[in-house]
Amino acid sequence: MKTCPYCKFPIEENWAYCRNCNKPLITDLKDVIEGGVKFPYDEPEIYHLEIEEENDNIDDFVIKDDEIDQKIKSIDEVLESKEVLGDPIPGTLLLEKSSLYYKKRDLPKALKNLELALKNFKEENDMLNIAICYNEMGIIQEDNGFFDQAIYNFNRALEILKELNDNSKVIKVLNNLGNAYFTIKDLEQSYNYYQEAFQISQKEDLIFDEIKSSSNLVEVLYLLNDYERIKKILARNLEFFKEDEDIYGIIQTEIKYGKLYYVIGEDYDESYQHLNEALKLINRIEENISVYIKAKLEWECYLYLGKIYHLRDNSTKAENLFVQSLEAVRIFEMSDSIKESEILENLAELYISKGEVQKAIEYYDLACEIFVKFGDNSKNAEFKIKIGGIYLEFEENSLKAINYFEEALEIYDELGYTKQCALILHKLGDIYLDRGRLEMAISHFDEARKYYNDIKDGYNADLLTEKIKSLKS
User: Of the residues 44, 46, 54, 299, which has the maximum number of CB atoms within 10 A of its CB?
Assistant: First the structure.
């Protein structure tokens, strides 16, 4: 007889929960897979608003390009027929056509059809579909890296949906706003939108939306180091997914557990086990999902397993896993992404530890380009300092080091990061001193001293005062 994995009480095959401890039980995995995988919600999830609510079956998402082309052709035939007859063009057809182009990853055509649909819906004063268009336009603008435009469109959609009291769709747009702010590192705004989505879901008793909103919220809580709340959310989510027999949700939660234990840094073996469990489950459902969705599930598994192997000084295994993670991201991302930059950073650090400095510089430079695209200037400056340090320590090329440090200084100065400016100027002063450029060294030490005074760092300010005096004497 089977026993409960929690309390070891005897259980029947068809029980959804243990009659002894009331914990949810997952049925045979094969039965779950054959029953269909739930519609995926990414990390964090992008919420498309359809005229009808989303279908949970993943088969609607996994469509071959030739099937999409055929559907587009059919829509075009209807549109041409209506144009010939002088009939009005239905905005819903344009909206559907846009959705198909989005699935093909043809964003320009998807956006063009959305704009035409929006124009039609405005003429009809169809407020719900106007909101849907704004939301979809926001998703495309975010994919293109235009976050200000994405946020504008999401807010337009949100205003309309709140007026319509369509709380189910309000929750989805709030999560989209949370995603956009999360990507541009505005954690306060991201947290607020995720939290609002979570609270409305609770109030409306929309359990699935509540679970998905809390899953998005976890991503912010990692950065806020609120690990206890993460544990509570993940424990509740895992119970829900097991009870609902949602294998996709179970996989996502296993990945989040793996990430959690890595970030906490106390039990890397626990992290390793959760990540490998996620990969095992992914392999068991791979015939039921597209390569695109499989890659979206795998990339963080490979990334964090690579980090663990790097900590264990197994650089060969770590490098292979980082490359697998990078390949996975490039399958489902349409262009450079923040995810890719995170992997590039890990590869650069790995190559530094292996003494392959040129490869490290190459990957840091590639990551810098991505951060520039996504407007993360502080991270861009941080990597420029790392590259400068590599040239100084490993290549003994002080001129290139100076160039990178000065580029970082310019960025930090524009951002108003006084402490970082002081540290870079101090470092540049030391480099010029080593090169025998006394006047340049004193000039940089003097500038650094001013910044130290601004942040009330009397110790370093006094240190530089004495250093300047000794150099002038």
Answer: 299
